[in-house]
Specification:
Number of helices: 10
Structural class: mainly alpha
Radius of gyration: 18 Å
CATH class of the largest domain: Mainly Alpha
Number of strands: 0
Oligomer: single chain
Largest sheet: none
Order of helices and strands: HHHHHHHHHH
Shape: globular
Helix content: 55-70%
Number of domains: 2
CATH topology of the largest domain: Hypothetical protein af1432
Length: 207
């Protein structure tokens, strides 16, 4: 019996871990990051298998906590000896660093093109999806809040991360994220429109 391919291994052993995470970080999210990072990687001279592995593992650290999940993901990658079937120790270290560097609130630039690719793919800047994920996270972690409490938290998060001066940084010029970020900022600036979108999504998520 032949050994599994890297893709088979990731799909059967790593991707299912996302089933245990919050709604914003389920299999659809990791599959999006895998697909988007592969698409962006086509513009660069990189090892596509390394990009694939980094994307698959990037949020696995959520098994411990949200605040340090990127660092935990790096630790998981370094300690998973099964990756030695496909990568050298140096490649595993680069993959681990890419996972560590993907977080939007990171205090440093990604250390390699692999980190920039995963960080960019993880942004997933679709305005409605961003608002929905913000609400989903709030409902999961602050269930005691009423709708107005979630509205205030949504406003705070969107301004802090995505508005002008927010901590979100874009790294790959070939990405369409810049255009979509402009769309999101226009919604943030239009408070009545944002409120309408918020109420519609909140109702869907709490019915």
């Amino acid at each position: 019996m032949s050994s599994p391919t890297l893709l088979e291994f990731l799909e059967t052993e790593i991707v299912p871990r996302y089933d245990a995470f919050d709604k914003a970080h389920q299999r659809d999210h990791v599959h999006y990051v895998i697909g988007e990072s592969q698409k962006l990687a086509s513009h660069y001279d990189v090892d596509l298998d390394m990009v694939l592995a980094a994307a698959a593992y990037h949020d696995t650290g959520l098994c411990e906590d949200r605040k340090t999940h990127h660092l935990v993901s790096g630790r998981i990658i370094r300690s998973d000896e099964r990756l030695q079937s496909w990568f050298t120790p140096e490649q595993v270290e680069t993959i681990a660093q890419a996972a560590e560097d993907h977080r939007a609130s990171s205090d440093h630039e990604p250390r390699s093109v692999y980190g920039r690719l995963i960080a960019e793919a993880d942004r997933q800047i679709d305005p409605v999806t961003i608002i929905r994920r913000t609400i989903q996270y709030g409902l999961s972690h602050y269930p005691e809040r009423d709708m107005e409490g979630h509205w205030e938290r949504t406003l705070e998060h969107l301004h802090e991360k995505y508005d002008f001066g927010g901590y979100l940084k874009l790294w790959i010029p070939e990405s369409s994220n810049a255009e979509r970020l402009a769309e999101l900022r226009a919604i943030i600036a239009d408070k009545p429109r944002l409120r309408s979108i918020f109420e519609e999504i909140f109702a869907q998520e709490t019915k």
